[in-house]
Amino acid sequence: MTTVLHLTASGVSDGSVSRAATAKIIADLDPSKIITRDLAITPMPQVNSQWINARLVPPQDRSVADAAALALSDSLIAEIAAADVIVIGMPIYNFGMPAALKAWVDLIARPGVTFSYTENGPVGLIKGKKAIVAVASGGTPVDAPIDFATPHLRQVLRFVGIDDITVHTAKDLLPLAA
């Protein structure tokens, strides 16, 4: 039984190449359960000073306001914990990831929860997960010097402990989309 967390970030609903590419990946995986998080339709809030401060308060010392500030972040991290595979559809906008995906990244990167600092540097705490990323890049070739999205997403996933990462271009998954 495989549970997939499906993240989509394209601002385009109908005709989105990254959405079509992740649909193909998920069909090939044939999971028993899919958790869907459409970051463009239900955008993530930007982190603010309340969230930044609350994430550093030990759980037993959090106020009601601190807990409320972290509630969405806690839910997002629970979705990752529940998944075996994380499938991310990432279009490249202006050489980077969409703001909606960056907001998700900011909300899931939590010290003491998804990573910890050690004397040897940071250590990711999310283990045993696989990430599959479908990149729709238009005129920005994936992994070219002007692609700031793909290396950034790989770094963030590794930072939180997800080392099994596969990146596909939408062109590879959907040859007719080229």
List keywords for this structure.
178 residues, 7 strands, globular, alpha/beta, Rossmann fold
Task: Describe what you observe in this structure.
Keywords: Flavoprotein, FMN, NAD, Oxidoreductase. Quinone reductase that provides resistance to thiol-specific stress caused by electrophilic quinones. Also exhibits azoreductase activity. Catalyzes the reductive cleavage of the azo bond in aromatic azo compounds to the corresponding amines. Belongs to the azoreductase type 1 family. With about 180 residues, the protein is of the alpha/beta class. It has one domain: Flavodoxin domain (Rossmann fold), CATH 3.40.50. About 35% of the residues lie in helices and about 20% in strands. The protein is built from six helices and seven strands, in the order βαβααβαβββαβα. It has a five-stranded parallel beta sheet, with helices on both faces. A hairpin with a 2-residue loop joins β4 and β5. It is globular and about 55 Å long.
